Amino acid sequence: MEAVAQHLLWFLPMLWLGMVLAISFLEAPLKFRAPGITVPLGLGIGRLVFRALNITETVLAALLIVATAVVAPSSAVRIWLGVTIAVLAIQLLVVRPLLTRRSDRVLAGAELPRSRAHYWYIGLEATKVVTLIGLAIAAAP
Fold this sequence. Notes:
With 141 residues, the protein is mainly α. The protein is 85% helix and 0% strand.
C-alpha cells in the first residue's frame, strides 16, 4: 500500500498538471475561436468543462491527501501540496463564484466588459502549474 501511495504522490500531480494545461491554457481560449461559437455558447461549454475539471481536481487533491497520510512524505511534499490545495480552494470558493455570477448575467443578455476575475483565475492557474511541478519533483521516487 505504501509503494502505491508513493507512486501516486508523483503520478497524480502530473496527471492534474496535464489536465490544467490542456483545459485552462488550450481549450478555454481556443473554443471562442471556433466557427459558430457565440459568447453565450462558449460560456455554457466553459461552465460545464470547468465544473468537471474542478470536481476532478478536488478528487485528485483528496487522493493526494490520503497518499500523504499513508507515506508520511517530506515536508517539501506537504508544503507543495498545501499550497496547491490552497490555490484550488481560492479558485473554488472566491473566484469561481464571481465568474459564475458574471456568466449568469451574460447568459441573461447583459453586455459586460471583460472581468478582472478572469485574470485572477488565470494567475491562480499559472500558480497551480508551478505548484504541481514542484509537488511532483519533491515527491519523485
